[in-house]
Write a structure and sequence with these properties.
137 residues; alpha+beta; Thiol Ester Dehydrase, Chain A; 5-stranded antiparallel sheet; two-stranded antiparallel sheet; 3 helices; globular
Length: 137
């Protein structure tokens, strides 16, 4: 089962061409990632970092920019986890304008479970592995 959250495009997020400046789109994906942890996984991402000393930095990104995103758009960002390795996972963020099915942007991002103390890869804890696996489609 996938997870979906909403992000509104603000005036400060657009460029001179009147479309969302593309680095801001990656920020939206990270907002969706944090919302996914808080609402789907049940652990706020700041708590994961501070108390569990675990983080999931992105190590690879592949993005398709299909249609422009403009000021005032509300993006429905759907998160799925189609691949799960021992220490890494692929998260796919598909962003469509609210009320539309066709995505504006699709980004596949590989993250790696890393211990905050030594910043070395580690196995994804079983609790998170189960929840990620349930978000496969």
């Amino acid at each position: 089962m996938s997870y979906t959250t909403s992000v509104k495009v603000r005036f400060g997020d657009i460029d001179l061409a009147g479309v969302t400046y593309y680095p801001n789109l990656y920020h939206y994906f990270h907002i969706a990632f944090e919302d996914f942890f808080e609402h789907y996984v049940g652990t706020a991402y700041p708590r994961l970092l501070a108390e569990e000393k675990l983080c999931f930095p992105t190590v690879k990104v592949e993005t398709q920019f299909v249609r422009p995103v403009k000021y005032g758009d509300v993006l429905e960002i759907t998160v799925t986890v189609p691949r799960l390795g021992s220490s890494s996972a692929d998260f796919v963020f598909s962003a469509a304008r609210q009320g539309e099915d066709a995505p504006c942007i699709v980004s596949r991002q590989t993250v790696v479970a890393v211990g905050m103390d030594d910043f070395r890869p580690m196995h994804i804890p079983e609790r998170y592995r189960r929840l990620f696996a349930a978000c496969a489609a």
